[in-house]
Amino acid sequence: MPSTNLTFAQRDEHRAWLASQAALPAGFRVGVTRFDFMPVEAPKPAKMTLTLLALERPTTAFAAMFTRNAFPGAPVIVGRKRLAEPALGAVIINNKISNVCAPGGVETAERICVATAQALGLTPTQVLPCSTGVIGWSLPADAMIAALPRAAAALTSESIMPAAEGIVTTDLYPKIRRAAVGAGSIVAIAKGAGMIEPNMATMLVYILTDIAVPRAELRPMLARAVDASFNAISVDSDTSTSDTVVALASGRVPFGDWGTFERGLHQVCRDLAEDVVRNGEGVRHVIRVTVKNAASLGLARALGKAIVNGPLFKCAVAGNDPNVGRLIQAIGKYVGAHAPGIDLSHLRASLGGIEIFARGVFQLDPAKEAALVAHLKGAELYQSKPGPDGVFAPPVDFPPHERAVELEIDVGNGAASASVLGGDLTHEYVSENADYRS
Amino acid sequence: MPSTNLTFAQRDEHRAWLASQAALPAGFRVGVTRFDFMPVEAPKPAKMTLTLLALERPTTAFAAMFTRNAFPGAPVIVGRKRLAEPALGAVIINNKISNVCAPGGVETAERICVATAQALGLTPTQVLPCSTGVIGWSLPADAMIAALPRAAAALTSESIMPAAEGIVTTDLYPKIRRAAVGAGSIVAIAKGAGMIEPNMATMLVYILTDIAVPRAELRPMLARAVDASFNAISVDSDTSTSDTVVALASGRVPFGDWGTFERGLHQVCRDLAEDVVRNGEGVRHVIRVTVKNAASLGLARALGKAIVNGPLFKCAVAGNDPNVGRLIQAIGKYVGAHAPGIDLSHLRASLGGIEIFARGVFQLDPAKEAALVAHLKGAELYQSKPGPDGVFAPPVDFPPHERAVELEIDVGNGAASASVLGGDLTHEYVSENADYRS
Q: Domains of chain B, with CATH numbers?
């Protein structure tokens, strides 16, 4: 469940709410700059935004998790090495090009770190690089290094909003979540809309806190929070080569109740993960699957993922069609292929609180069908309509509500439960990823 | 590789070619009837086709494979029991409703068998029932039993075409393949367009032969042929609850060279599997992935499936966009999640015969890009355009050519190879599965 239940009728309302969440914790500064460049691999100019997240003093209390994709981006390779360093002072992030399997990619990432360190008075190993965007292209290192002093000159300690806006690619809106913890706070931003089925981390997420949480506490807490949030979402079942979650603690606010801190961290991660799905490419319905009474946590999560990744069920949801046959198919597909011994005879399923399957057979009638359609329509984020050029694009760039298509699967043969979030499969997703060449 | 390379400019040419393949082997008869009925679960009337495949004399030489979905349809449950029977005399097939997890489904399937046996002078256990269509609805047993005598009266021994046309649901065209074996033949038909990632069998496939092949030879040969054909395709990664492949031998033509027979069986299964993909829901490009030099057959197949099931790569292909970053992402996603120890440093990838990845980095330039686009456009089956109602539907109901998007992945660390077929992800797929409620 989201810890908030927000409804926005207009973009301005959403932006005002984001601004109300955006105050930077003590000890951090943010600076952004934007510039044009000419990619090596493409015939036309492109725009890139450089975002600098800087600590006022380097911190020993930092944590990071990265994609498990077997072709990680160069910044992920460099970032994994940074985990062994004594301290971190800044994160430098670019959008547009992800620096994955490009010739000399690691060397380029390290060059950017050297230039960032020079601009901020740090050593290069105190800088963590992050890149997101097209896979396969090369970073325009010279243009980035030329732009860096402008990002450093823009550093302010007021709002994280410029960074939340600076790191996006196909995102429709910036994503910011915060939690108050003692006299301090946790504030986090995320970037990500497609290629989202994180495996141990998601796209780009930055979590800043002024709480004095030691590294030894922060790292396992981040791993647990990521597992229950970003690892439990899927927009399209694809796993980015750049997924990165970074947590930085400036240590300005003394605190010692790690249970309270961890609850705040989980809340921020869960809310931000839901923001990523709600803003997912082409998503018109968020789908929340709660799996109960499964034999193991792994099975509960896998069943949830099998449902939110089933293309036929996703298409049915897009059409406000309670085609629950496709739902049962998706469960049976997973169990038949990966857990053939599991007893499904006690499985019960409900959609929008309405029981649709029990004791091995569907529980359907025309009245239920009408109620199921109403539940699906109530969770729709916007109506689908092609533009005059035939391209489907969302008409809203803010989340109008936080409702979801609510599925509950009671497996009935164990004690484990899990919640998984996903989205539907729409014309808007196909237009985003086929009609326009990225 | 397909054993034929067919090109059709018009529907008539395709139908004439199908007719040239359609002669029934000796010892078989086919009868079809169509009728209206009122489904229990829906407020409007529907049409159903009943297809009867009958042997002139019951045969001991029959084989069948069924879905591994953990919620199999009632006909699959009954069909598995039939494998232990001494002989089979007929198959009764309905479309429109798949009889999956419907109340009393098995009893209904057995009632249909009793009525079929009465019409043909068989015992009920000599009849195999098959159903395909909507999951969750109940079969109209009384209407089906009333229609059965008309199907029996229509039985002829000339052509399998009425059956190939009778078993379809969302298929755009009937699918028939044949192979000559000695003085006899193997003739097979398939139904299936969506919910296609078979696990040990696919949708509905019927393989008829007049060759006198004993049951003990036929069953393992069918398992091997299915594994290399229907189990190596995916339209949308969903696994039907009704997948069924049945092979029947009438025994009219003596023969003893089982190597030759098995080659014919494999050819028919491979060709028919490719027909199923080429006719897949919304498929505008067939994608053929050949994985070479992998550490195991399982890994080779899994990498091929990971590529043809990657939604972002599928969308790129739909847009004739050689977004090879998404291809490498799909490989890395699978290996990172399921085979993290594998060495990928020797991996080479080509698209349309053009090398795109080697030694850990992309091998791209603008000239290659143009050639890759040309390869993708050359494999397109039709142009995408919405109708006046905004719904996308294929403008052709025949396969204009047998070209495919050709991918070769040389893993470089083993000796196993596999070929996997899939399709792109298109507006036509979304329209088929979301815009119209099925």
A: 11-278 (3.60.70.12), 286-435 (3.10.20.340)
